[in-house]
Amino acid sequence: MTMPTKKSIRFFNDYEVRAVWDEINSKWWFSATDIVRAINNEEDYQKAGNYWRWLKKKLTTTGVQLVSVTHDFKFMAPDGKQRAADALDAEGVQTLAKNYPNNRANAFLDWFIYSDNSIDGQSKKKAYTLVESGILDSMNPGTVECLQQIHAYIFGGLYDFAGKIRTKTISKGGTVFCRAEYLMQNLAIIEQMPQNTFDEIVDKLCVSNVAVSIRFDVQS
After folding, report:
1. Is the pLDDT of residue 218 over 70?
2. What residues does 73 pair with on adjacent strands?
């Protein structure tokens, strides 16, 4: 099996859940130890690993078959070295969570399913892919075109207005964003704002958000 090159880190209650991309089967594999550590609220990686090995054996004896547990993937260990570890695909993660002792995994399962299947979850996965793909390196940061390209990539297939400049005035929570008839004029001004320092970049992003809102082409 060809070793994967794409990696991702997601967080459940501040505990990292590492994943690696399987090019051959086109899916993510998740660190089994990370999953146990997150569910058990366990700081110690070794204790989490010991619990995972015990739990894997226990589930096997009760007839629960986890999908494709494998040692073919490597994750960064606490000592900084890449080490082979058990990994589960999405189906295996859900099987583990549903058969976890004392229902402790319910919140984790809700998070995992939500992050995988909801619109927010799908857009987050697209965002991970965008960052990992290197496509951002070919974009011109700070321009309206760049914002449109990012928006189209992340929300394409989820919203029909992905990447389009809105043509209607919108509001959210009582806040009215830049009126549509002035939007293009303001975007041109924002595009020329400096972005040479961290503070300038933050200012530019804040002004951009107030102007366009997260949604590009919908009416409130």
Report:
1. no
2. 85
